[in-house]
Amino acid sequence: MSDPVMLRKPQTTSERAQLELFYTCSADPAPRDAQDLMAYPFFSLSKRHRTRPIDYAVADVVIRVEAVPEHGMATIWDADILIWAASHLVEARDAGLRTSRLMAATPYEILTFIGRGVSARDYQRLKAALDRLQSTTVATTIRQPTSGRRHRFSWINEWVERTDQLGNPAGIELIVPDWFYRAVLDDALILTLDRAYFSLTGGFDRWLYRVVRKHGGRQRNGWRFEFRHLYLKSGSLSPFKRFAFELRDIVRRQPLPGYELSIEIEINGKTLLAFEPAPCGQVVDGLVPLGTRPIVPLGTGVSCYREPKPALTSEDQTESRALNLESNPVSNSCSGRSAVENRSGGPADSARSSPNNLRSGSGRRATGSALVPGKRAER
Q: pTM here?
């Protein structure tokens, strides 16, 4: 009886061996980010060790983010490394250079680009961030050809630290996932960020800037979101009451570069966060004059910090925001979101201004300290 034939397993080539190494060449490219990462809850908003998953499911968009106990979930500060990667990939592509998912740079280059220090402690924090990005797993239906199909990946497939003969950091090589790489190289899915974003220290501030930049863009009429819907989009572990307090505090402080925030209250009692580009393209000062309230009573004179708007001349003439459909195929309201999310806005957007909700139930406009329902608070 002859010996059985021993079948050899085919040798598999590592992912690293199949990719061409891409060295970042530009010293100071414009910061860029993928719109999907800005619009949905992919990161922890706290520096505290988080292992509880993020679960988001609205209409056909499903996201689940999981972390391992050893490293915890990737935070919104860790996402700065992905902004660094996206910025260099887009810069190289626009310059006609070949790009790759396998990227190489020095820790110094990454840290200085994202506005961090370059001490030994900062290097250790960078490595911890890379570990969290690699160990955090994401499963999502976004940009999948088949309905219900989920793409699973980590923010970094793998990373390697190179050192010199003295053991000092000499460079880092990392591989970004195909899902992220494709989004970065698609012009329609990338937005430029204000470099002042890296100076925002609060997790809520950073998250809200990304949402505002994505949905408000540079539209003069801005955009609005219900507090409840923003809470859903944040993935925050804080109770809603605490989340709403944080939003109101951000409106008070006005820390977001290039945008002005205000609060609106509709006649049905829903609270909305409204945002639009700062007047004349200027950055809104984070210092609010003493005594200024985030919600300004109706009839208050126009602020010198914003361009006057035409006054409403009669009850038959109302001011309604123009639809910002260019960058907002999503709902800004919790009600009916299962039918609206990822579709063009319009009548289904219950939080959008309309002639009917510009009036009170009796047909008279609200006075005193109340806001006109559906109308922007004049700051």
A: 0.73
